[in-house]
Amino acid sequence: MAVAVVALAAAGCGKSSTDSSNGSGKNSSGYSGKGIGLAYDIGGKGDQSFNDAAFAGFEKAEKEFKIGGRDIEPQDGESSADKVQRLEQLAKAGYNPIIGVGFVYAPAVKEVAAKYPKITFGIIDDDTVKASNVADLVFHEEQSSYLAGVAAAKATKKNHIGFIGGVDIPLIHKFQAGFVQGAKSVNPKIKIESQFLTQTPQEGGFSSPDKGKDAANGQIEAGADVIYHAAGLSGQGVIQAAADHKVWAIGVDSDQYQQSALAKYKDYVLGSALKNVGGAVYDLTKSVVDGKPLSGEQRGDLKSGGVGFADSNPKYQAMKDVVTAVDKAKQDIIDGKVTVNAQ
Fold first, then answer.
1. Most buried residue among 15, 70, 142, 291 by CB atoms closer than 10 A?
2. 231-242 average pLDDT score
3. Is the pLDDT of residue 340 over 50?
4. Parallel, antiparallel, or unpaired: how do β-strands 121-124 and 98-100 relate?
5. Of 294, 164, 166, nearest in space to 217 by CA
6. Residue pair 249/242 in contact by the 8 Å Cβ criterion
7. Is the pLDDT of residue 8 over 70?
8. The pLDDT value given to residue 26
9. Is pLDDT at 297 greater than 60 in this prediction?
10. What are phi and psi of 155, to 5 degrees?
């Protein structure tokens, strides 16, 4: 499969993209689209978290279904009109499905999907776009965050932990709510530091490792020895600060223990609250290739494997009491014995 990096000439369409094609435009199932179109959220590819999880699903689908694909980076400070232009560019080129990575794409997906009814659109982390050719790819983030809270409360030596959210918005409140509930299920009196990096995405809450590092340093100095972040690219700074101070960090969305860019800090990644964004991208693409495109709300939870908790770190696996508590909490949620608050 030939892969070329293409600079986009059109203003406002993004900085760069990967454009790959199997050369035929048709695979053995009769799918006739050009491939998958993926438009990234703030932070772009390389965040080792949310966007990279989407890219993993994109790559898997390209390879397994032998179709092409194009993924496009966002621009700093871009408008909703820029997102509309980006999605229209993919639609005009014949990509199907086209997926907006992040709730910020909601207005653009709504507008462009109406213009291209024969193309399937997906939007991750938003359930407000209702159309027959749109799949809302959403998750019970509070469930995986509950497991992160249980792990943090069992692993802390100071009964003092922290949460760092990228942006003060309802989606990130779900992560916070689940984390707090999970931690308090272990120790109702546990002390929890809590902070949001910015009020809006445009201020860099999801794309500023320096902001994440400063916030984590502050929480560690206040006494927290396990910090969970839901901050996208900014979370790299949280993990770095935790490693510098030799305390635990808990990652988000992707298994951050496994991320190559974080390899020097991985010993201090206790685990990660997973969100199977890649699986959602793959599943939507498969449905289109199979000629049975998904639409409407598609919500991943612990039972379906849409969310989870990564246990890749051998140091975590060696903490048998922590592992047992997290496994029990997971089963209790799946069995309906525990209901996790989403706010």
1. 142
2. 96
3. yes
4. parallel
5. 164
6. yes
7. no
8. 57
9. yes
10. -90, -25
Sheet containing 134-139: which strands, arranged edge to edge? 2-7, 16-21, 68-72, 35-39, 98-100, 121-124, 134-139, 296-300
Give the separation between CA 343 and CA 230, rounded to whole angstroms.
15
What is the C-alpha to C-alpha distance for residues 300 and 62, in angstroms, rounded to an integer?
22
What does R_g of the chain's alpha carbons equal in angstroms? 20
The pLDDT value recorded for residue 36 is 97
| C-alpha–C-alpha distance, residues 221 and 308, integer Å | 30
Q: Which amino acid is at 154?
A: K
Angle at 335 between CA 258 and CA 164, to 5 degrees: 40
- Which residue has tokens 């600060």? 241
3-state DSSP of the chain: CEEEEEECCCCCCCCEEEEEECCCCCCCCCCCCCEEEEECCCCCCCCCCHHHHHHHHHHHHHHHHCCEEEEECCCCCCCHHHHHHHHHHHHHHCCCCEEECCHHHHHHHHHHHHHCCCCCEEEECCCCCCCCCEEEEEECHHHHHHHHHHHHHHHCCCCEEEEEEEECCHHHHHHHHHHHHHHHHHCCCCEEEEEEEECCHHHCCCCCHHHHHHHHHHHHHHCCCEEEEECHHHHHHHHHHHHHCCCEEEEEECCHHHCHHHHHHHHHEEEEEEECHHHHHHHHHHHHHCCCCCCEEEEECCCCCCEEEECCCHHHHCCHHHHHHHHHHHHHHHCCCCCCCCC
Closest CA to 102 of 45, 146, 144: 45
Residue reference for tokens 């400063």: 214
- Position 1 scores a pLDDT of 33
Tell me, what's the pLDDT at 257?
96
Name the residue among 251, 212, 307, 285 with its Cα closest to residue 55.
285
Q: Give the pLDDT score at 5.
A: 29
d(CA 249, CA 203): 24
